[in-house]
Amino acid sequence: MAYYNKLVKSGISRRSMLRGMGAGVAASTLGMPTYLRAQTAGTIKVAYITPATGPLGLFGETDGYTVQKIRDALGGTLQSANGDTYALEILERDSQSNPNKAAELAGDLILNEEVHLVVPASTTDTILPVMEQAELYEAPCISSGAPWQAVIFPRGGGDFNWTYHFFWGLDEALNTFVGLWDGLETNKKVGMLFPQNIDGETWGNNEYGLPVPTRAAGYEVTIPGYFQPRTNDFSAQIAAFKEAGVDIIGGITYPDDLKTFVTQCNQQGFKPRAVTVAAALLFPGGVEAMGELGNGMSSEVWWTPAFPFPSTITGQDSAALAAQWETDQNRQWTQPLGYSHALLEVAIDILKRSTDPLDREANRVSMAATDITTVCGPVKFAGTPHKNICTMPIFGGQWVKGEKYAYDLKIVDNSVNQLFSPEQAIVPIVW
């Protein structure tokens, strides 16, 4: 997120910079047949922006699949509260894991495609710049898949008219990490690993980031300096951790960086008892890429097949969604699958309840009044902890040897949310 950091440091208005990024590159869309258009009250356009490729591609890998599944379930139409039937187009765009590209796409979709609802799916690098464009050009925007502080605080933390978001908060994730560590016998020394980007700066913040609850719980914290994403050398961090005698590694990284770090830890004889890292350990592919070193890694849990809530669109529960993904894709379920589905549930619900889904203002009013239970849990914007935010359940999880797949993710801590009992107790990593 160097782009945003430069804006802040230079004092240049982010809003004025974004205003010049309205025009984007057009891409093909799935249009509605002419005969169907003629039978409807008009065509609703939904912009769906996701990091389908690039270093954040694992976060977006379920989005295209889920969008098509929702298209099929709805049959290309939507009936709103006013009793009319509309054609529905979902225009998918790839942010390429680039915040500048995400802003460009959002500007094009809002100004040129004249979409009626904007849906950025997953990661701060996609959601934050899209939110900026939506607020600037007054287009309703619903999002999920990033800690809410990371998409609210960089914009000043005030109330917003056009952008709403549902996900867990950084404070809840941080307390989940501490809850995981409290379940282990350690020397209570934690080394922290943060990248030099907006996520690292948020998670590493000394006022509200991971160091705060960790120190409050009686742990000693070592932060040897932020690393550059995609680095190939963690020697300085490892040396600092070894000198401090840390038993635990906590922080946030993406999969490639964590694989490099863990491999070098093993090579340099540094063997912590726990590695608990956000983002990189969400995905089975990221854990499998580390081979035997992946066994016992721990992370936050967004969603699993154990969630009991049925979809408001397909009627499937989370177990059925995961099973269908595994059958259709011939690979293991992954956590963003639940939120890909839940995000579209909320988007469709907003449009169905709108008094005029072809009017952005009507959709904004409907979005603010959201009250729905998705496959990931209830979504309602009740004013706390922020007008534009609904917080969602989060748990602590650990990857252990699996039967059908190399590793299974087990819920091992529910100290923040008691929706489920732990499936097992957390155990130390065996290197």
Percent strand:
15-25%
Secondary-structure class: alpha/beta
Please tell me the overall pLDDT: 90
DSSP E strands, number = 16
Q: How far apart are the first and last residues' alpha carbons, in Å?
A: 34 Å
Helices, by number, come to 17
Q: Radius of gyration from the CA trace?
A: 21 Å
Strand order of the largest sheet: 2-3-1-4
Q: Residue share in helices?
A: 25-40%
Sheet having the most strands: 4 strands, mixed
Poorly predicted residue ranges: 1-32
Which outline best applies? globular
Briefly characterize the structure.
The chain is of the alpha/beta class. It has 17 helices and 16 strands. It is 37% helix and 19% strand.
Task: Characterise the protein shown here.
This protein is α/β, with parallel strands linked by helices. The protein has helices at 2-10, 14-19, 34-38, 57-60, 63-74, 99-111, 124-137, 148-152, 170-182, 198-203, 211-216, 235-244, 255-267, 284-288, 318-329, 336-353, 360-368, and strands at 43-50, 77-79, 85-94, 117-120, 141-143, 163-166, 189-193, 220-222, 248-253, 274-279, 298-301, 371-374, 377-380, 389-390, 395-401, 407-413. A four-stranded mixed beta sheet has the order 2-3-1-4, with helices on both faces. Strands 8-7-9-10 form a four-stranded parallel beta sheet, sandwiched between helices. Strand 5 (141-143), helix 8 and strand 6 (163-166) form a beta-alpha-beta unit. The two termini are 34 Å apart. Keywords: Amino-acid transport, Signal, Transport. This is ABC transporter substrate-binding protein. Residues 43-395 form the Leucine-binding protein domain. Belongs to the leucine-binding protein family.
